[in-house]
Amino acid sequence: MATSATQGLQGPLGVAKKITTWYMIAAVLFILLGLFAIIEPGVAGLGITLLVGWIFIFAGIMRLIGSFKGGGAKHVVFQVLIGFAYLICGLYCLTHPVLAIGSLTLLLATVILVAGVLEVISYFQLKGHNASWWMLLNGLITLLLGGMIWFHWPSSSVWAIGILVGTNLLMTGVTRLMFGLAVRRLVGRATA
């Protein structure tokens, strides 16, 4: 009886160990991709632009297919127009990737600037609460980053997307790797 109970515990722990192994391998790949994107931001930006182009094309095709599922004529026409807009954006990204990188960089700068403004507004709404000044600091740094990208546009197109995505991939990979190692230690303690 005790043997079957022990085997039952080994099963889930073995699965957890296997899952964490794959999780940590994926984390290392994220780290490597992030380092590559930081070292070669122009190539990474081009790759991201092409990926965005293919996502737009796929989304446009899906939107066109889904537009005929029902609704009135007005709904169908609206959905078809959105589908064609996605297709046009996707084709633009694929056929003019350098111009598309510039457009994506300008969009990115705008989003970052808006996020910075919202953080500063949030600070003034939460002023007086514990650690609310962190929100102000985050908002000011975000505004500075967005302003750097915006005011140096279009030359910022060469580095902005690649470095920001690379930093995100690197941090995601490190976080996932640390989480996987922590789970691995817990699994090791459970089997000991």
Number of helices: 6
Radius of gyration: 23 Å
Residues in helices, as a percent range: over 70%
Sequence of secondary-structure elements: HHHHHH
By secondary-structure content and strand pairing, the structural class works out as mainly alpha
Structurally, how many domains make up the residues?
1
- Poorly predicted runs are 5-9
Shape: extended
- Distance between the terminal alpha carbons, to the nearest Å? 20 Å
Largest sheet: number of strands, sense, barrel closure: none
Beta percentage is: under 5%
DSSP strand count: 0
Mean pLDDT: 84
Q: Can you tag this structure with a few keywords?
A:
192 residues; mainly alpha; 6 helices; single chain
Structure description:
This protein is mainly α. It has one domain (11-191). Helix content is 88%, strand content 0%. The relative contact order is 0.17.
Topology diagram in text:
Blueprint: H1 2-39, H2 41-66, H3 73-95, H4 97-126, H5 133-151, H6 160-191
Give a brief outline of the structure.
By secondary structure, this protein is mostly helical.
